[in-house]
Amino acid sequence: MDRGTIGLLPRAPCLEDESHLGYYESLRNFAIRELFPAAATKIEAAVAEAGLPDGGRTAPLPKLLEVTSPLPVVGAWKRLMRSQQLRTWQKVRTTLLADEAQHERALQDAEREVPGRLHYDPSFETPEYACLDIHLQPGGYVGDRTVAGHVFHYGTQVFYQGDNDQDELHEDVASRVAEPADGRVQKILDVGCSIGQATTALKTRFPQAQVWGLDVALPLLRYAHLRAVNLGIDVHFKQGLAEDTGFEDGEFDSVLAYILFHEVPEHLFAQIVAEAFRVLRPGGTFTIVDAPNGRAFPAPNRVWLDFDANHNCEPYSPAFVATDLTALLESQGFRITHSGPTPTFLWCTQCEKPVAA
Ligand SMILES: C[S@@+](CC[C@H](N)C(=O)[O-])C[C@H]1O[C@@H](n2cnc3c(N)ncnc32)[C@H](O)[C@@H]1O
After folding, report:
1. Which helix (H) or strand (E) holds 237?
2. Are 254 and 180 in contact (CB under 8 A)?
3. Which residue is closest in CA terms to ligand 1's atom 16?
4. Ligand 1 mean position, distance from CA 268 (Å)
5. How far does the centroid of ligand 1 lie from the alpha carbon of residue 332, in Å?
6. 323 FRET partner, CA 20 to 30 A, in 99, 188, 294, 329?
7. How many whole angstroms separate alpha carbon 347 and alpha carbon 330?
8. Is residue 206 assigned to a domain?
9. pLDDT at 1
């Protein structure tokens, strides 16, 4: 049932789901803010006792896991994280699928009411690497043609633990997009846009610009379009690949990639950077907000990363975290203009395509 919205946040389809989402959110909150710090203390002590050098930063991963996995608090933390994640998806997806026909109608109505904003080619073939159940979402981003976007929105509401109910984090990300030095921002690309929350935030920040969100997952884009129509925000969405967008050379003044890189296989990192470089005009900017990368991390962070990779279906993230993104950007011709942490645990890198390029 459509129960309206609370500001930008759609209410869960029924009161029972709303209650369960609140419950899963508090479980996640407890797992991250209370249980993990306790686990980290035990991990650090176990690493010291085992004599692993550098606080466990450089020990081989199997050795680190051998030392830390038997700790009960670590096992409890992992199980709680995984169970909470699985149950979140399952709960909302079951209710949404029960009303699939109604949701399908709403998606189709939005495409009819505001045509020419959702761009896709029915013959597009989704690459296999993008078909995983990322974060354990059943069918991943591409499995449920009708409800994957709705499921993603409710699920990420829990993921963000209430901090993004009004797209606050997406607004923050949009505010980090570097303006070209000449101030000209006529066309922006949000690559790996999912359900378009940063895309709409970018349009709000740059109302004069034409803003495009691109993603491999059509189900997410269909929901993104519906959401943008409901918000009355005029943006474009296109199904496509970050590594081969199909846009013209130099079409964009700015490109954003928010938490895209850690979700693509390693062989695509350089291709995606090269593609951003190609579609930017000289002087255009590329902003990447993603996991910190390119350095050795303390043992608790490594345990979390391993959990995500192997128990939360984030198989590509270890390779991204090990990559020196700054060096990669420079090797493809970008000039780094900023590199620093965000208020969340992420890292923001801004760079520009030199005017002479
Ligand atoms: C963690 S989500 C990004 C979140 C999003 N930027 C936001 O604002 O919430 C990663 C997204 O990248 C998309 N993706 C993965 N591989 C891609 C590729 N090669 N090209 C385009 N999109 C891709 C996924 O479908 C997914 O929507």
Report:
1. strand 236-239
2. yes
3. 264
4. 13
5. 21
6. 188
7. 17
8. yes
9. 66
- Does the pTM surpass 0.85? The reply is yes
- Strands 5-6 and 9-10, sheet pairing: antiparallel
Please give all residues whose beta carbon lies within 6 A of any atom in ligand 1, as ranges.
130, 141, 170, 192-194, 197-198, 215-217, 220, 241-243, 258-260, 263-264
Give the per-residue pLDDT at 48.
Answer: 98
Do 82 and 210 lie in a common domain? no
pLDDT recorded at residue 18: 92
Domain CATH number, residue 190:
3.40.50.150
Could you tell me if residue 29 is inside a domain?
Answer: yes
Whether 172 and 284 map to the same domain: the answer is: yes
Give the residue numbers spanning the domain of 88: 5-114+150-157
DSSP per-residue letters across 92-138: HHHHHHHTHHHHHHHHHHHHHHSTTSEE--TT----GGG-S-GGG-T
Measure the CA angle with vertex 335, ends 330 and 339; round to 5°: 90
Same domain, 227 and 345: yes
Tokens found for residue 257:
């990639």
Per-run averaged pLDDT (10 residues), the chain, 357 residues: 86 90 96 98 98 95 97 98 96 92 97 98 96 95 95 93 94 98 98 98 98 98 98 98 98 98 98 98 98 95 97 97 97 98 94 92
CA 87 / ligand 1 centre spacing (Å): 22
